[in-house]
Amino acid sequence: MATKVLFVGSECYPFIKTGGLADVMGALPKALVADGVDARVIIPKYGCLPQEYKDRMRHVCDFWMDLGCTGDHFVGVESFEMGGVTYYFLDDEDYFSWGSPYTEMYNDIERFIFFDKAVLAALPVIGWRPDVIHCHDWQAGLVPVYLRSLFYDTDLSRHAKCAITIHNLRFQGVCERSRMQAVSGLPDECFALDKCGYSSAANGYRPDGNMLKGGIVYADRVTTVSDTYAYEIQTPEYGEDLDGIMRYHASKMVGIVNGIDYEVNDPATDKKIAQNYSVDDVIEGKRANKLALQRTLGLEEDPDKMVIGLVSRLTNQKGLDLVGAVVDRMIDGNTQFALLGTGDAEFEGMFRNAEWSHRGAVCSSIMYDSARSSQIYAGADVMLVPSRFEPCGLTQLIAMRYGALPIVRETGGLRDTVEPYNEYEETGVGFSFSAYDAGQLLNCINYAKTVYFTRRHSWDAMVRRAMGRDFSWNVSAKKYEDLYRQMVG
Ligand code: ADP
Ligand code: GLC
After folding, report:
1. 466 forms bridges with which residues in the sheet?
2. Could you tell me the pTM of the whole model?
3. Mutate which of 272, 297, 311 for ligand 1 pocket (most atoms within 8 A of beta carbon)
4. Which residues neighbour 138 within 8 Å (Cβ) at sequence distance 6 or greater?
5. 395 lines ligand 2 (CB under 6 A)
């Protein structure tokens, strides 16, 4: 019989997306279903889900559930099937009718505590019992905790195993322990310091509760989204104050690198780009897309200029201060820069300024726009991903799929997926630098420019190599299937 796996998380493409988590929640279950796994997904029913999907949802069940000191809540479950995957949307109007998936931490903690308990409470009512509950990030962190405490004496707890995937250790879902305990109704023992309890120099020795930490401790297996990140988070530099916990639980942890959805990200069929192309006509295809991009962005229209792209959430994680430090030197008469992103005001202002200083050579699109992101991947020659840390990173994978060569810092998944160019052996699919240093980034960009402008034959060959690499979910989905098999036993 097919293994039954329930994905629990806060976003899922194409319903709701703020970053790579949504891409993984969208693509991995599809790949698993194609391999015969009965994979289903549950996310909150946010008010901002597109109407076209809301219209197609079917009511599955509703019931009342208590939640600690907050009293009784109405829980509604709707479902919708697409591409062989069943998606469940879990509702409580009070919590999820808001305009965006995240508000601020104080409210979000209560909303996702509700979500985590309601997911477990809903399963018997839905009438589907998973073999593995696969949780994602802090928003699903209390699912394993509930499963092994308040729900321990249930058929679900006796049967199901729990895995948690860390997509980003920086966000942990932390608030005062007393509040987390009062809202969740979880017993004292769950808040011991080796469980959800959290108190260290980093939080000023406050007695806090930590949802992600609880998930890591109570889950049967922990995964993260690349091998290198699995190692890095056991060190103080990348451990976000949980490196001790990560080392303690290292034996149940594994790194499985993300793939990307090859149907969604395909330059041969992508309707959002000016001209479709594949590896066979990539050079002409990218030239046409570059001209179209330059026109759209108000950049000087010249296919011989090198276009450097960057598509990112604008946060401290992404190495944007390095880009700010080099942008004036990066731009020259032959180089243009196309940025797409939203986030911290500091970085939005920095990139607006760069556009004002280099009119016609720099365009900063401060917005979230999936059509424009496709157009940048298709029209750019290189994509910058100089992250401070990067659990996996999908932009470098999408870049390679569209024949734009990534320039990355050697950290996390960037290190695992971008083999750097070797000019002696003519191997590699991009460029990389190691230290978090603006000088190293600039050297790396200059090296890429040298290859682009003086050894175009090598460049074009590298573009074809990058497009030929397999970053689909084929390989990694099998690794998750192995993991589920080991867990189910
Ligand atoms: P993270 O999850 O840390 O944001 P990833 O590289 O894993 O980083 O995934 C980012 C995803 O979000 C990619 O699919 C990228 O194309 C997309 N993305 C980021 N910013 C934007 C934006 N402003 N507009 C459209 N897509 C974006
Ligand atoms: C997180 C990470 C990113 C990763 C994504 C999907 O948002 O920041 O590196 O690719 O999750 O796993």
Report:
1. none
2. 0.97
3. 311
4. 112, 171, 172, 173, 211, 212, 215
5. no
